[in-house]
Amino acid sequence: MHKLWVMIKYNFRRTAARKSFIVLTILGPIIIIAMAVLPGLLAQRSFGSVKDARVAVYGDGGGLADTLVTASPNFLTIYRTDDFESAREECFDGTLDGVLVLPDNAMDAEVLSFYTRGGSNIVMTETVRNTIGHILTGLRAAEAGIDQSQVAKLTAVPSFDIVQLNRDGGDKAGQDFNDFIYTAIAFIMLLYMTTLLYSQMIGRSVVTEKTSKTVEVMLSSVRPSTLMIGKIAGMGIAGIVQYSVWIAVSLLLMKVVGPALKIELPSLLSADMLGYLILFFLLAFFLYSGLYAVCGALAEDEQSYGQLQIPFIIPLVVPMVMISYLVMNPEAPVTVFLSFFPLTAPMTMFVRIIVSPPGMLHIIICVAIMLVTITAVAIGSGKIFRLAILRTGKSLKLKDGLKLLFQKGE
Amino acid sequence: MIDIVNVRKNYGKVEAVKNLSFSLDRGEIFGLLGPNGAGKSTTIRMIMNIIKQDSGKILFDGREIREADKDRIGYMPEERGLYKKVPVDELLVFLAELKGMPAAESQKQMDPFLKRFGLMEWKKNMTDDLSKGMSQKIQFISTILHDPDIIILDEPFSGLDPVSADQMSGMIAELRDKGKTIIFSTHIMVHAEQICNKICILSEGAVKTSGTISEVKSKHGRNTVVIDFEGSAAFIKELPFVSELIEWPGSCEVSLTDETDADQKLLKAVSEKLKISRFELQRPSLHKIFVDLAGDAEGGKHA
Prior knowledge:
The complex is a heterodimer. Chain A is mostly helical. Helix content of chain A is 68%, strand content 6%. Chain A folds into 2 domains: 7-42 and 176-405, no CATH class; 51-154, Periplasmic binding protein-like II (D-Maltodextrin-Binding Protein, domain 2, 3-Layer(aba) Sandwich), CATH 3.40.190. Chain B contains 10 helices and 14 strands. Chain B has a 6-stranded mixed β-sheet with strand order 6-7-8-3-9-10, sandwiched between helices. A 4-stranded antiparallel β-sheet of chain B has the order 2-1-4-5, covered by helices on one side. Classes of the chains: A mainly alpha, B alpha/beta.
């Protein structure tokens, strides 16, 4: 036990002393806050950026053009033009955002042409469309003898006060789905990146030990299992420390940043959600670090290590690639399956917890499956590691690793 | 202190070690000699309990070797390496701690060694800053820092300049005088002859010969003549009473057949063609015995 402790201490110290660890620990809270605050900030500020939009109207539109010029709101300057070609040029100069062409029957037209630069601001186009649509609706209503305020009342879309259901009770006020989804994706990205980063660090450290020929010195003092567990535990603790610093500093800063920017903090930044984040990071880390340690032991150099790890990157990437499907369909059979399949479970179950809490039973089953798998992988990878670590020469393949797994004796 | 009894080890169908037996006593420098692939590293790894033998026993003080015995052994493998980007003192403390020496104790003990090898000013440097020779000396210090009873050195002098090799050689002699048991694995027979009390020559996983240097030389003694000369000695190997010639610039070692008065015939033959400054009948060198036993092909590689 003493040697294991020495190994853990050493690996923790060496990981924490890396420049990349220090930089990431400092940058982490800033990234987390950016991820949590940015969507809300963007949602709050994005339409304000259209305040300087300038649109020219070409054609009289049966009197509609003059009405648009006088009724245009502050953020949108509309003026008439008789020269379409020069208005077109102004669009390319950037002095004009677009040209609206009004035919004589514009009041009854179902489609109006709006000329604008390619790749121009979608939000601006949408704002112009809504504004002109709103003015047109008012004019049509007046023509039909309906009071404008009555039209507004009839066409008003209610906003939603979202309440997130919780299977285990305690329904709570939620966020608007659009804000919420960005934060959720950001957290999944964080989980994915840290799992990949730390697990790969384990594998790379094993390869370095082999290529720098330090492994034999290590094995003259400790068992291969102690070497592997010490490495995983030492770096894992560094990961927990980094996460803890991130979360503690983030929560502290949020108390300052949120109120200062007058932004409502995402409900995801709750203690239980951050607890789940650490839990699923640990489950993913311990599973993948065992697998990557085996890749490191089988590899002869960095290049062969890169090839060996590909099969284990794929399941890690699957939830990332399917993120929008998982978020939109948190209870679909595929999502539920992926949340119980060990290699994809940590990320997918975390998505489910964020988007639509699946109930404690599903979470417990997922954690239990993960723990059983981690134990099996630890035993298997321990054996492969022991038999492969001292091999030199040709790099072994994963199928050679499987042969070693079922090999009898040493 | 260590007894290797009928040890066998196979890697798949390859017999790496075949029924190996030898013993080491306290205060002895034991040379484990042999060409590449002879089974030296496998034998050392079995002694270190890094790999398990298929059969036979490895006894430590009369009982089967245990994992805990690793703490009483210092091991410097042939393929050397240090962790990168670690301060030298931190690495030495870590490796000594793994052998059971408290950090404070190893901090205290490392200074005399560092001073002796002229590395004191490098104590706080990163291992990446060290030259190859310095790294090797640091690794040697890490091997002996925890004061082990048994020290295993695999090619400790390779890559060292003569001054550093002498420093290390002196240190090895001191360790022997303190009663440490040293297993010394090398290809360089001159080193083995200078340092070892006992040797064991392995080839293809089996013991070819073992005993004290004197015993081995007596066992494999044949008529050998060493000649220092001026001229070309190539013609000697064509002489009918010469079985082998090992030639260096200005000198050679000639093995004679059992023919009567072969040495006299050789003296007559060479004095006619060469200017001789030395003609000495002697026992064969360890190098010669090694080449004979390890086989010509392998011997050529290591000559």
